[in-house]
Every structure is written in C-alpha cells, then in structure tokens.
C-alpha cells in the first residue's frame, strides 16, 4: 500500500448494508479514506475510473453490471486497484473464490473476517489476475448471480402523451434516464416509462441489454457499429435511429470482444 493515506470505494446496492460496511471499515481501518459509496455497478465502474483507489469493495449482485464484471473492467480502468468481493453466496461460490485465491467477505460481514482482510491488504494487497476473474465469470454466470431475480421483461407499457403504448422489449433501441423516470426509444419514437433506470436494469436480459453510460442502456441487437476516439470514449451507431449514443470510457472495456 502507498505511503499516503490508503483510499477505497464501496459498492453495495442495499443502502443499509452499504452503510454498515462503511462504518465497519472506518472502525477496522481508521486511516482508510472512502472516496465513493456506490449503489450499482455502473457508478462503481465510473468511480474506479475517476478515483483509481487502492482498494474496491464490490458487492457481487448489483443492478446492471455485477461486481465480477466491474472487476474485469477495472483491469483497464484502474489496474492497480485491489479487489475484495462482498457476497451472500452459498458454499459453491465460496469454493470458486477460494480456488481462484480471490479475497471475499461473506454477508453479513463479521468484524473478525474484515480485520483479517484489512491486515492482508495492508501487508500485500489483493488483486485477482485476469485468468482468475475469467474463470469466476465462467463459473458464476449472470443467471446464477441473479438466481433469485424475476424473469426478464418481454414487454412493457409506457406513456406517449395521453396514449399508453404496449412495447415489446425486442423493439427497444435504447433506454435513457429521465430524472426519476426512463425514456424508451424505439424506431417509431419515444415514450416515458415510470420506472427509474436503475430499477429497470434488474428486469432486463443482461445478454441483450448493456449499460454504456450511467444514464443509457442499449439493445445490442440495435447496434450498427461502435467507434472509439482518442480519449477512449465510444460512439454507438444504431440501425433504426439517426442519433448516436455516447459510451463513457470505462464502459468501452465491456465491448472489447465485439
């Protein structure tokens, strides 16, 4: 760990658990500076890219990007960051973490276990290599990560003026955050969904819909092409819409195999 005060981010989508972990960290590691408290995978990835902390405590099961996906992207966004996963998983998943020699905390986090993790971080750091993360991603597929979630949406109802429209999920080009609501964009136009984008993420098929910005989710089947500029940011061209969509630099790592 560096001579300067160590830094970290905490990512946990449940507010009470996030607050509890932050308070426990403050007791176990008073010198640690917590730079960001994140409630989903997108904000965690952006915080990693912005702050490049010494340590990231990542909940595995979060809306949108999982903790594993954030950690995989962090290999480029903040390669020096040490990763500690926080999980409520069963023994199957715990075995996978231990085989990969990747540090984790089980919920509810016990003071003794947190103290041991802090000691390891202070002594040498914990940072999984790309191979270990790839193995974990293969073993703990999104379906397993979200085993207790509701099935993905196949259609939704949204408002366009005084009209209520029935929209098939396959017809959606992208979703855009609109204050507390979400704008649904199709080839035919726009409609308003009275659901926050963060909540919507939990009901979308993760294999088809990807978050490309904190405020934007795109249907991969609607993409015509992706370009990257010199700053690392990307631009998405759509098949059925004239506008382009911005991809923030941290999220470009999610498209490196496309």
From TrEMBL:
Superkingdom of origin organism: Bacteria
Domain Response regulatory as annotated: residue spans: 7-122
Sorted UniProt keywords: Phosphoprotein, Two-component regulatory system
Pfam families: LytTR (PF04397), Response_reg (PF00072)
Annotated GO MF terms: DNA binding; phosphorelay response regulator activity
SUPFAM superfamilies with a match to the protein in the record: CheY-like (SSF52172)
Domain HTH LytTR-type: 156-258
Residues modified to 4-aspartylphosphate: 59
PROSITE patterns attached to this UniProt entry: HTH_LYTTR, RESPONSE_REGULATORY
Name this polypeptide is given: Transcriptional regulator protein
Species name: uncultured Lysobacter sp
